[in-house]
Every structure is written in structure tokens, then in C-alpha cells.
Amino acid sequence: YTPQQLTLIRNTVARDTTADEFNMFVEICRRQQLDPFRKQIHALVFSKDDAKKRQVAFITGIDGYRAIAKRAG
Fold it and tell me: Which of 13, 51, 68, 70 is the residue whose CA sits 20 to 30 A from 34?
């Protein structure tokens, strides 16, 4: 991703993530070859205002599963 694309992802798709969570999200996107711009993968943050309960989940969307299936044949 270009720096501009990373900024856009950070400000939209993964806006509630911390720096480490964001870096993990981008790495998962790269390794799984999923495109957050096409809504193939999502970053969801739960209990973002409570540090003790905070959790992040990276969810593959239906379009992501379709892309993976197409690559797998």
C-alpha cells in the first residue's frame, strides 16, 4: 500500500484501532491478499473506551471469502 492508501485505511476502515492493531490489520490484509477497500476484510474494535475490556477482531467478509475461493479454484 502507498502511504496515502495506508492513511485512508487508518482513517476509515480501521479508524478505532491502535497503532499496533492497525499494523496487524495491514499485515493480515497483505498475507491473506484481502482488500479492505473492497470490503473483503474488516477491523472491529469492541469496548474501545475501556482498556481492560478492549478487543479487536479482524473479520473476513463474504467478498473476502469469495476472493479466497476463487484463488483456490
Answer: 51
The mean pLDDT of the chain is: 95
CB atoms within 10 A of CB 43: 23
DSSP state of 36: G
Instruction: Record the cell numbers describing residue 68, joined without a space.
Output: 479466497
41-46 and 55-60: which strand pairing? antiparallel
Segment 47-61, tens digit of pLDDT: 999 989 999 999 999
pTM for the model stands at 0.89
The DSSP output letter for 47 is S
Give the integer Cα–Cα distance in Å for 24 and 73.
27
- What does the alpha-carbon distance between residue 63 and residue 34 come to, in Å, rounded to a whole number? 9
Length of the chain: 73
Beta-carbon neighbour count of residue 28 at 10 Å? 15
